[in-house]
Design brief:
Layout lengths: L7 H11 L3 H4 L1 H13 L7 E5 L5 H9 L4 E5 L3 H4 L2
Parallel strand pairs: 1-2
Helix pairs in contact: 3-4
């Protein structure tokens, strides 16, 4: 049995509190994300779901690369989506 528990409410609040300064501190996430986007050669699907999109930095890059698909941005912290 798994005793590991994630408090989603606490996680949501933590990211919501960090929304204003998140982009300035997300260097590692951006480096990894850029490499992942480089590896995606084409989108054969009609929809891309950006789970944990944060402030939408990579959502915008996906939108620019795959103009013929719908892109849905999803994040647990609403203030991230409003940035």
């Amino acid at each position: 049995m798994n005793d590991f528990y994630l408090d989603k409410k606490l996680i949501r609040q933590s990211f919501a509190n960090a929304a204003e300064s998140y982009d300035g501190m997300a260097n590692l996430q951006r480096q990894v994300g850029r490499e992942l986007i480089k590896q995606v050669l084409s989108a054969e699907q009609s929809t891309i779901l950006d789970v944990g999109c944060g402030t939408g930095f990579f959502t915008e890059q996906l939108f620019n690369k795959f103009t013929a698909v719908d892109i849905i941005a999803l994040d647990i912290a609403e203030p991230m989506l409003l940035k």
